């Protein structure tokens, strides 16, 4: 123990008092690093003009002004500014939504206060705190090690060196915030917190790094496609107009109007809003999207590789049955609460009368380095460390042993943390003046290492027949769905590596009940064409039992073990990999290989994990999913999504939301492009038919920024379609437009173009102002109806829930009101060059515009009939 360090920070092994910790928190501040300051509203406002689509409109505005149409230029400028204001509000809302998501996950730290171990938010740590360090956690603050048991950390984040580094009190004792604990455990004194930590000081260098939002490339491709289309159309139409003896000035005004009509100015910000809204909905369902890029993989996932513990099961890992000296003991209890009756053949017994059980529980306690603490705040038992070791610790407490007391009387000499390749962990303690090695691990491994068996406080040479009987007992426990751990010991070992010629003690059978909703969720995912694969470190018999119960394993499926993977080449595995539903007794290296094999087939794979060694496979998967409750900080750091409830159902809900996000983006794109293309056809049609321009540039600006501006945002807030996972889903191309969208777009635009020109033709020879008003209003009403059309690809407007999108109802009412202002208010009449319409004219407009619903409803009905 480094007494000088304790004195320097005015602390002790017992930790700070609660009162002193509070005083230091006020003095030093919270243990958090300042993040990038959110952009101010003025900066967000200016960003609204940083788009190639907006650049074209600014150029258009300048051309209109130079041509002497300065009123139109002013109006275009005003509406550009108005659009920027609306965009700023939307982007601000999206940014606030994403910032708020950070509050959903809080990193915990185990600390000693008032001589008690408690689990607190790492933000509450202060210099002088004594922190408990466990395998799989991240160092929460800069600290100096004061005790270490095989403590090994990864300093790659700080030094770039990936080799594990041992930490000891006497040398190399500094640990920094953000380092990963690979194995072992220890205690440390916090020396620096927040911005005073090493990582806090360099945070300024990375604080302004921008993170690319998902779909940014797709939006860029689409924008480039639109711009190229606009340029080609403008050149062609200009040449056609000149050929038909139209003046140069008239043709410039025409192509200016055309440019304004085809550019969906609000697309980038609306897509950002769709993403933010979808991610927020996911968080409400306990799926925290850490990296927005994950949204792309979410909707496309067709394989979910899932661990058993905590995700399919309740994560209430408890030891239910133990076997020692040819006797089975049933252990009652709930979760990690250290209470429960002990039974033999359904009869409650007093463990004091069972010396064999007491010995097994005592030896097991030495093999558990986890911590179990009751949280007064949350009124539940919380664990720190490995859940399996926590279950062993709770079992030993039920029998009457407390780890702290045991260690005081039986000091630890050394230990070797659980090794995923060797499949066991070992510890050496001084017990009654004798060094005792205790070992827990996979039964098939431990039994092979045993040459003796412990019975009634004596050791005997184990016979082949006894080993065979023990193997039968082990398999019987496995078949009942228990995860089995074997326990053995050795007297006077040379070290914790001296794991041979062991003496077998007994089996610990633990179970984690299947979550009630898992069976339904797995079926839902499978119906959506998603393959569920179980990847677990458990024995294949246990894994098969759970997989059968949950619906993952079907008759004829293949089970591969870690040994199979070691023996087979990639080509051999790939031949049958699509028929494999369980990978059992695998280690983290196997997990990484499995992920890469599925990816080599072009599959989009989502992978769950919670341990330190799961990090490589979580990073390699298209979608890394970590557990929010039992997951280590290392796993959470490596993942794209954190399940706040560790529940498989949440993964399925997140994939459902991911597909809904794509659907919503498609709705918005379809709406914006079909209405824009409809406006283009109106202009091109008029030009080819030698009509006057049926709509003015300022009127198109009104439609695109005001009418579209409200309706596309309302579509972005649309509710998720029913049975979305059952619908056929294909990966979107780089332009985010598929064949069905193109067909619908062409149909919508043709109806809009034809209907508008039909009404315009009836009026332009009589009253040009009235004709322009008819065109403007017809296009507006077409847009109202079209927004409702775009809500679903197959479902009728009337069956998909008219009242399910209150935003669209509100937006429709707003744009109807604004259109009335445009044609009846004298101020707007002067600006937009409109005239009042009578009842019969309105009726004519509604009848013509409603044709877009009639045609689309007919198409949907045919589509539904074909899919029956």
Q: Estimate what percentage of residues fall within beta strands.
A: 15-25%
Average of the residue pLDDT scores: 83
Q: What percentage of residues falls in helices of 4 or more residues?
A: 40-55%
Number of helices: 31
Low-confidence stretches: 205-212
Give the termini separation. Answer: 75 Å
Radius of gyration from the alpha-carbon trace, in angstroms: 34 Å
Main sheet specs? 11 strands, mixed
Number of strands: 28
Which structural class do you get from the secondary structure elements?
Answer: alpha+beta
Report the principal-axis shape: elongated
Features:
single chain, 868 residues, alpha+beta, eleven-stranded mixed sheet, eight-stranded mixed sheet, 49% helix, 19% strand
Structural account:
There is one protein chain. The protein has 31 helices and 28 strands. About 50% of the residues are buried. Strand 14 (about 370-375) and strand 15 (about 380-385) form a beta hairpin. Helices cover about 50% and strands about 20% of the residues. The model is unreliable at about 205-210 (pLDDT under 50). By secondary structure, it is α+β, with helices and mostly antiparallel strands. Strands 10, 11, 12, 13, 16, 17, 18, 19, 20, 21 and 22 form an eleven-stranded mixed beta sheet that branches. An eight-stranded mixed beta sheet has the order 8-28-27-26-9-23-25-24, sandwiched between helices. Strands 1, 2, 3, 4, 5, 6 and 7 form a seven-stranded antiparallel beta sheet that branches.
Give me a quick take on this structure.
Helix content is 49%, strand content 19%. With 868 residues, the protein is of the alpha+beta class.
């Amino acid at each position: 123990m480094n007494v000088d360090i304790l004195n320097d920070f005015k602390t002790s092994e017992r930790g700070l008092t609660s009162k002193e910790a509070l005083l230091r928190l006020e003095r030093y501040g919270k243990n958090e690093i300042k993040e990038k300051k959110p952009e101010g509203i003025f900066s967000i406002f200016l960003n609204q003009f940083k788009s190639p689509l907006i650049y074209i409109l600014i150029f258009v505005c300048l051309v209109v002004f130079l041509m002497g149409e300065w009123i139109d230029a002013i109006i275009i400028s005003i509406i550009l500014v108005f659009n920027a204001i609306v965009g700023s509000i939307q982007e601000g809302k999206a940014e606030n939504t994403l910032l708020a998501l950070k509050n959903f996950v809080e990193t915990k730290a185990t600390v000693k206060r008032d001589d008690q171990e408690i689990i607190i938010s790492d933000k509450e740590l202060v210099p002088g705190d004594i922190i408990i360090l466990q395998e799989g956690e991240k160092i929460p603050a800069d600290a100096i090690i004061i005790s270490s048991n095989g403590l090994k950390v990864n300093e790659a984040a700080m030094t770039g060196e990936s080799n594990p580094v041992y930490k000891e009190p006497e040398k190399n004792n500094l640990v920094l915030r953000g380092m990963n604990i690979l194995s072992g455990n220890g205690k440390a004194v916090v020396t620096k917190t927040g911005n005073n930590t090493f990582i806090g000081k360099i945070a300024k260098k990375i604080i302004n790094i921008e993170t690319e939002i998902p779909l940014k490339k797709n939006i860029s491709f689409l924008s480039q496609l639109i711009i190229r289309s606009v340029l080609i159309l403008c050149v062609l139409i200009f040449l056609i107009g000149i050929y038909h003896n139209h003046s140069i000035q008239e043709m410039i005004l025409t192509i200016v109007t055309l440019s304004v009509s085809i550019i969906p100015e609000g697309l980038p910000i609306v897509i950002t809003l769709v993403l933010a809204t979808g991610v927020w909905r996911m968080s409400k369902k306990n799926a925290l999207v850490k990296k927005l890029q994950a949204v792309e993989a979410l909707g496309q996932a067709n394989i979910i590789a899932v661990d058993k513990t905590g995700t399919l099961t309740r994560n209430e890992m408890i030891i239910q049955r133990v076997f020692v000296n040819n006797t089975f003991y049933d252990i009652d209890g709930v979760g990690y609460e250290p209470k429960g009756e002990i039974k033999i053949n359904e009869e409650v017994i007093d463990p004091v009368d069972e010396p064999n059980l007491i010995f097994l529980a005592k030896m097991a306690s030495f093999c558990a380095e986890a911590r179990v603490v009751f949280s007064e705040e949350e009124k539940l038992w919380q664990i720190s460390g490995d859940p399996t070791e926590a279950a062993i610790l709770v079992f030993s407490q039920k029998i009457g042993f407390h780890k702290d007391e045991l260690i005081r009387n039986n000091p630890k000499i050394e230990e070797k943390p659980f090794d995923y390749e060797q499949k066991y962990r070992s510890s050496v303690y001084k017990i009654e003046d004798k060094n005792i090695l205790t070992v827990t691990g996979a039964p098939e491994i431990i039994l092979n290492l045993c040459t003796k068996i412990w019975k009634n406080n004596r050791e005997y040479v184990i016979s082949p027949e006894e080993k065979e009987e023990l193997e039968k007992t082990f398999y019987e426990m496995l078949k009942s769905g228990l995860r089995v751990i074997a326990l053995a010991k050795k007297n006077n070992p040379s070290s914790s590596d001296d794991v041979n010629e062991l003496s077998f003690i007994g089996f610990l059978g633990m179970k984690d009940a299947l979550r009630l909703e898992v069976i339904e969720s797995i079926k839902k995912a499978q119906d959506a064409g998603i393959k569920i694969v179980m990847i677990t470190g458990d024995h294949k018999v246990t894994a098969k039992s759970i997989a059968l119960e949950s619906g993952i394993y079907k008759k004829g499926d293949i089970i591969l073990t870690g040994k199979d993977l070691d023996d087979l080449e990639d080509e051999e595995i790939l031949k049958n990999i699509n028929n494999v539903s369980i990978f059992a007794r695998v280690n983290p290296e196997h997990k990484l290989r499995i992920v890469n094999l599925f990816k080599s087939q072009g599959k989009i794979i989502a992978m769950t994990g919670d341990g330190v060694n799961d990090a490589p496979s979580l990073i390699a998967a298209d979608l890394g999913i970590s557990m929010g409750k039992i997951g280590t900080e290392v796993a959470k750091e490596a993942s794209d999504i954190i399940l706040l409830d560790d529940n498989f159902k949440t993964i399925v809900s997140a994939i459902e939301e991911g597909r809904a996000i794509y659907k919503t983006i498609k709705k918005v794109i379809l709406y914006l492009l079909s209405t824009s293309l409809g406006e283009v056809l109106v202009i091109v049609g008029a030009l080819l038919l030698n009509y006057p321009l049926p709509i003015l540039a300022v009127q198109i600006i009104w439609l695109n920024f005001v009418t579209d501006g409200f309706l596309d945002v309302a579509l972005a807030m649309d509710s998720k379609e029913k049975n979305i996972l059952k619908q056929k889903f294909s990966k979107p191309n780089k332009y985010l437009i598929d064949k069905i969208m193109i067909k619908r777009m062409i149909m919508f635009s043709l109806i809009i173009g034809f209907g508008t020109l039909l009404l315009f033709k009836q009026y332009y020879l009589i009253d040009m102002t009235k004709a322009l008003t008819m065109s403007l209003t017809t296009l507006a009403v077409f847009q109202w109806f079209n927004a409702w059309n775009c809500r679903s690809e197959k479902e009728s407007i009337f069956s998909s829930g008219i009242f399910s999108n209150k935003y669209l109802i509100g937006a429709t009412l707003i744009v109807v009101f604004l259109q009335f202002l445009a044609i009846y208010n004298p101020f707007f009449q002067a600006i937009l060059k409109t005239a009042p319409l009578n009842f019969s004219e309105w009726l004519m407009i509604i009848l013509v515009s409603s044709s877009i619903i009639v045609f689309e409803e007919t198409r949907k009905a045919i589509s539904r009939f074909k899919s029956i």
